[in-house]
Design a protein that fits this description.
single chain, 423 residues, alpha+beta, Aminopeptidase, Alpha-Beta Plaits, 2 domains, four-stranded antiparallel β-sheet, 11 helices, 19 strands, binds zinc ion
């Protein structure tokens, strides 16, 4: 028995040694190919042009659910880069770089921003910095996919797997990852690897998906006059009572779990008892179990807040329908969790790229387009596409393109290693 176990252990060690060896060899083979050196050169020398394109992309507004104008522009850019481009029914722009087999590597960058229509997206320059909402998230990723497609064409790259360069819709907030959901659904049979480019930076790689749930809590009641109807239950008061109960919830540090009430609205005037109150809540956790627990706590807290407000009304002598409030909790979005396996060739390719470029990166768990492929067992990572940035999701968002070639080269090496070069 012991001996069998020993053989078995040696067997596993040997297999994983051989796998590692094979992966290192394939990464080295990719890195040593003169065409790849050419890709890295092209990316380095095109930095100023890439940054100018990023500005043009950013200045086309792309509020949630209104990505179509930016999509049409991205379609032109990817066509000009030599790809065969189409827009699917969901609104994703898909540019195809042919491969020797039907296997697919997908590089995505989301087109949507968190900013509503009418937001000033004009890019201002301050020193080396560019300032505009959405300039980095995801102007950086979008400019990168165009640059990579061009560089692969100009360096006469031929790959084993087909590469799809995709500008997708609905990554942020209530978009609920609808773009990548549709893409994974369409291509899952041949889809081997997904690399989601999101924002800038090179010091991390997202290899695990953070589960999240977003819900809208809505409370409705009879409404009335602030003076003459005083005493009837008030939806805003009830919401307040529920919030006070919920936000003291204890969430674990491990697995890390968080909550945020991000939007609240209700009522029509200061001297009216409102007929409704609503809020939007974001719940996240490294564990689906904790997430479900947290959602339960939210429901209980809101239920208790409403009961308290209604019993206060009854104590003031209000009865019948006038004493009733109604609670509705609707799901706005669910993002599943998932993890990239430790022995995934995609992780090996990324680490080899980091090695070659002298970059160090930490692994992160986050909520990105990679959630969807990871949740169905397709290898996926999310990366920044280079440069530095700050103020994401605020009107003060900025991007500094200095050194962005590192991010572009890192994505190029990783992609070409998993796509496999053909002579
Ligand atoms: Zn983003």
């Amino acid at each position: 028995m012991k001996r069998i176990l020993l053989y078995f252990t040696i067997g596993i060690a040997l297999t994983s040694f051989m796998q590692n060896f094979a992966r290192k060899a394939s990464a080295a083979q990719t890195q040593d190919d003169p065409r790849v050196a050419r890709v890295l050169d092209i990316l380095r020398s095109s930095v100023p042009a890439i940054t100018e394109e990023q500005i043009r992309i950013t200045e086309i507004p792309a509020p949630p659910f209104q990505e179509a104008t930016r999509a049409a522009y991205m379609k032109n850019l990817l066509s000009a880069a030599g790809l065969h481009v189409s827009i699917d029914a969901t609104g994703n722009v898909i540019g195809e770089f042919p491969g020797a087999t039907s296997d697919i590597v997908m590089i995505t960058a989301h087109m949507d921003t968190v900013f509503p229509a009418g937001t000033d997206v004009h890019v201002k320059r301050e020193g080396g910095r560019l300032l505009a909402p959405g300039i980095s998230d995801n102007g950086t990723g979008l400019a990168a996919i165009v640059a990579l497609a061009k560089a692969f064409r100009d360096a006469k790259i031929k790959t084993n797997k087909k590469i799809l360069f995709v500008a997708d819709v609905g990554e942020e907030g209530e978009g609920n990852l609808r773009g990548i959901r549709a893409l994974v659904d369409t291509y899952k049979k041949n889809l081997k690897y997904v690399i989601a480019l999101d924002g800038s930076a090179t010091e991390y790689v997202t290899t695990a998906a953070l589960a999240s749930r977003r819900v809208e809590v809505s409370i409705t009641g009879p409404g009335g006059h602030s003076w003459s109807d005083f005493g009837i239950p008030n939806p805003i008061h009830a919401l307040g009572r529920g919030i006070a109960r919920f936000v003291v919830a204890h969430v674990p540090e491990f697995p890390r779990t968080s909550f945020n009430i991000g939007e609240i609205e209700g009522g029509t005037s200061v001297n009216s008892i409102p007929m409704s109150a609503r809020m939007k809540v974001d719940l996240r956790s490294e564990s689906e179990t904790e997430l479900s627990k947290l959602e339960g706590l939210l429901r209980d807290a809101m239920r208790a807040g409403i009961d308290e407000e209604m019993s206060a009304a009854r104590e003031r002598g209000i009865a019948g329908n006038a004493s009733l409030l109604e609670l509705k909790i609707t799901a706005l979005g669910v993002r599943p969790s998932g993890d990239l396996p430790e022995n995934s060739p995609l992780l090996a390719a990324l680490l080899a790229a980091d090695n070659r470029l002298g970059n160090r990166s930490r692994r992160e768990r986050s909520s990105t387009d990679a959630n969807i492929p990871l949740s169905v067992g397709i290898a996926a990572i999310s990366l920044g596409a280079g440069g530095r940035s700050g103020g994401a999701h605020t009107l003060e968002e900025w991007f500094d393109p200095a050194g962005r070639e590192l991010g572009l080269q890192r994505v190029a090496l990783t992609t070409l290693t998993v796509a496999g070069l053909e002579p």
